[in-house]
Amino acid sequence: MNRSLNDISVTTLKGVGSALADKLGKIGIHSIQDLLFHLPMRYQDRTRVVPIGSLQPNSDVVIQGKVLASEVVMGRRRSLLCRVSDGTGSISLRFFHFTAGQKNNLKPGAEVRCFGEPRRGATGFEIYHPEYKVIQPDAPIDVEETLTPVYPATEGLTQQRIRSLCEQALSLLANEDSLQELLPDTIRQKYRLSPLVAAVKLLHKPPPDISTELLGEGRHPAQQRLAFEELLSHNLSLQQLRKRVQSIGGFAMPPKSQLTDSMLEQLPFSLTGAQQRVMNDISQDMSAIQPMLRLVQGDVGSGKTVVAALAALQAVENGYQAAVMAPTEILAEQHQINFANWLKPLGISMVFLSGKTKGKKRQEVLEQIANGEALVVVGTHALFQDEVHFHKLGLAIIDEQHRFGVHQRMALRKKGEKNGGLPDQLIMTATPIPRTLAMSAYADLDVSVIDELPPGRTPINTVVIGDDRRSEVMQRLKTACLEGRQAYWVCTLIEESEALQCQAAEVTAELLKENLSELSIGLVHGRMKSAEKVEVMKAFKEGHLHLLVATTVIEVGVDVPNSSLMIIENPERLGLAQLHQLRGRVGRGSVASHCLLMYHAPLSRQSKERLQVMRDSSDGFVIAEKDLELRGPGEVLGTRQTGLAQFRVADLERDGDLMESVRNAARELIEQSPECAEPLINRWLGRGEDYANV
Ligand code: ADP
Ligand code: MG
Q1: Same domain, yes or no, for 182 and 273?
Q2: Measured from the CB, is residue 560 less than 6 Å from ligand 1?
Q3: Of the residues 416, 450, 484, which one is the last residue of a structural domain?
């Protein structure tokens, strides 16, 4: 049997020493198979000689002709200019760097063949620094038989080098077993996927008559075939993960309708239809012995927190603990306050744990978690740490999932394992995740959507305004606040530095206090002590402050219905999803709300477009789709979540329409040919991922 090319290192190829192997490693190429999946990003057409008279600008071509004139000209820079004609037209070759030998070669009368990109210049079409060869006038026309690939490269790795390595790799493909077809025939036929080896060969050496348009867009059947296989493998790996989790088993925690009913009675409102539906999904999941793996999506203000609290109570009713985890200190504190409001009256013991819980208090909290005295635990990622031992963790609620990586999600799953089962997992996100992204990144989760806002909300009027109108904005702010409304003033900074952002907020707060002495103004940012922050938030919530100056820490979770005005400085620095989150802090009461996006000119075209989206839409899903389109999946999911959104061949934006088929194919493959899953996962996710260990 032949060894798979996946197991053969590139160092077995001619000319690959350790230095070159390192460079290849940098762009993810280790095995010969990696090299074969390293697809060209574009192609050059060296398959035919183009008549000079029919040249079009801006695409690489081969031309051939006789040098008519050749001279060194003194423009802004000295250059060698050669006029070349082939009888159909003429063109200039221009060299800014040239040797005496070159000058001599390109003398009038010489026949040259060139490759390069014609551009319009001072003398009509010109090619700067073409590749060229002086040839015999009657030499036979020898051109390439296939398009010439241009590969993604890295420093010190030339196109010629990669091309010759790929040639070598392709020659090993002569033996078709070496790159095994892993997709069963039934799947290949049903989804019209071309055979693997043919697709790979074609993409490295496309025939001259191929549709370069499809190829350029990445929509050629050969490209789609590979993208499909890659997406399928990712999907399978997440399905497998899910299966593994479910085979471990969890705890059955059926609804007892004791604590949950008491909480519902105590609420000043009744649940929306969407909240009820999602609560039913969760309740059913929790009843089953398999661990729940559910993602709840709901726009800001849709009322996810209540649903989370009800789920926590269902766990507690069954004698288990529930943990609630938030991505930031301030959001965790908000949850603590909200949960305490609902749960304390029912006599449920709660503790709080974050990185800032220190010393004796920390010991106490850890002990209560370990001995089961604490029934509900709220905190930050501090809850993931090794020193945290739960007595009987039944349910883990993770808020704002997109900020935690898939790996952290797994770390938490492990937490409950010691008690002979995995805890149920409920993941809440206010970032509407575009469908295609959700299908690929969260294929291991069931999804429920709270697609209805509680009644009585008024739409937010969003205005985009330049910061040269700051004083006008301050006047408007003063008037509104003196009429009894409350407002946020949000400061942003380009840099991720929390320290600088906090400083900016401090400066702004001072400035506003000077200019608006009639108003009471508070400040909250991430570097303040917990107790201070809670104090300020409480004062704002109780209406003792007109204005809250804040960094983006208020992005999530803060809930003050009376606040109806928000000013965001330099909104162009934030992602759309983040802006939408921020804006969701207003528009929670019955008065009309306003959001002023105060940008700093000049704006790039993309920034303008993004702010316009904010002005025109209040639908989180529309905004998220637009965000995906403008910024790409890596950014939308958050930079911290690497891995999942990164594909070798597939591109979620381009191939989003494959996802539906991919999901179906994954299901069919698991049913019909389960043995195919493992090799596929190994092929596409083999290296560096620890899915297998979970
Ligand atoms: P989310 O976490 O989804 O952004 P919250 O859970 O913070 O939203 O809810 C936003 C606000 O709406 C809170 O003040 C909450 O008490 C209130 N709320 C939640 N559900 C309802 C409902 N069914 N009817 C009226 N108000 C609700
Ligand atoms: Mg919330």
Answers
A1: no
A2: no
A3: 450
